[in-house]
Amino acid sequence: MQLELKGRNALVTGGSRGIGRAITLALARQGVNVVACYRQRSEAVESLAREAQELGNITLVQADVCREEDVARLFETCRERFERLDIVVNNAGAISHIPLSDLTPAEWHRMLDTNLTSIYLVVREALPLLSEGASVINVGSSVATRGMAACAHYTASKAGIIGLTRSLCKELGPRGIRVNTLAPGIIETDMVSRLTPEQRKKYEAMAAVGRLGQPEDIAGAVLYLASDLSRFVSGITLEVNGGI
């Protein structure tokens, strides 16, 4: 079964590390032309830049997608590179674990701005570029429908993505644009690397398949939602969590 993504154009936010990096590389290896943004320079960015040079179809752009002016600058690059956008993956995000009693308004707003407001800013700016049949994929979290202690701000931001996706799918559907949420479970990223062996075993046991997810597991789901295999799929929350 062919995905037939070659020649399409994509934007991936938070594209330099973890899940975003896997998505960027998976799309590029399918022949998609990708603009991937990152918030600040790091070894992960340098490493991805080297891979991008080899592949030849990835453009890296520094942009904080919480900032309206940065998003505008990001789309200047998109317009320079592409006549249209076929795929938008809103992956940029943050998490912190803070009990409500210690949760400051500043941290609340940081989480909402990073995980939710950024999607509003990116999709609004993308509207003139989105092609008929384009796919917008918002990366949420399985926590959104389950909740987690000491993560009220994170859970609220990810739950907001589900509502935003449902509304956007109805608003943009008449243009043939699909909008979906992808909800990962516990994935092997930098954050997971800090788990103790006991914590890791606990999280592995939560998944029916008995393991943590890999960034490539999420990238595979993105390829499906980006392709015409999902051409009648819109407004859903696709959980990729190993059966939590």
From TrEMBL:
UniProt cross-references to SUPFAM superfamilies, sorted A to Z: NAD(P)-binding Rossmann-fold domains
Family matches, as InterPro entries: KR_dom, NAD(P)-bd_dom_sf, Sc_DH/Rdtase_CS, SDR_fam
Any single biological process term in GO: fatty acid elongation
SMART domains, per the entry: PKS_KR
Coiled-coil region list: none
Domain Ketoreductase: 8-189
GO terms of molecular function: oxidoreductase activity, acting on the CH-OH group of donors, NAD or NADP as acceptor
NCBIfam families: PRK07231.1, PRK12826.1-2
Family: Belongs to the short-chain dehydrogenases/reductases (SDR) family.
Protein's name in the database: Short-chain dehydrogenase
